[in-house]
Amino acid sequence: MFNIGDIAVYPAHGVGVIEAIEEKDIGGAKHTFYVMRILENDMKIMVPQHNAENVGLRELMTEEEVDEVLSIMRKKDVKFTAQAWNRRYREYMDKIKTGAVKDLAVVLRDLYLLQNDKPLSFGEKKMLDSAKALLIKEISLVKGIEETVVKEEIEAIFKG
To answer: Which residues span the domain enclosing 33?
Structure first.
């Protein structure tokens, strides 16, 4: 359960603030919605309260989870199986849709490492940029530091 003013994370859209909780009459039944404004682009979305968990709406990660995410990204001994980019894309998209921040870290790490071996497809590049932006925004909020500092920290992991 979220309250007005709470910060929450909506998978694939990012971090937002719950601006209202509204009841709507849909098909003769009353449904309660979280009205959420995504911080990155000011987009407003309505999330059915009864379905919030199923769509992956969650609280910001904890400081401990930030450490785990950074640890996941530092693991470079990842073995890739030979598969078509579109199959890999679908697998990564499924991970992102779970809303689990550790899955997002795995996607970011794998795409960063994969681009060292071969060029990423257009979709994979977009996914890498999106995963990076989502993690940067959330980590900066959790740690209370500028996004540019988090971006530099993440990029330093993959330069070394």
So the answer is: 7-59
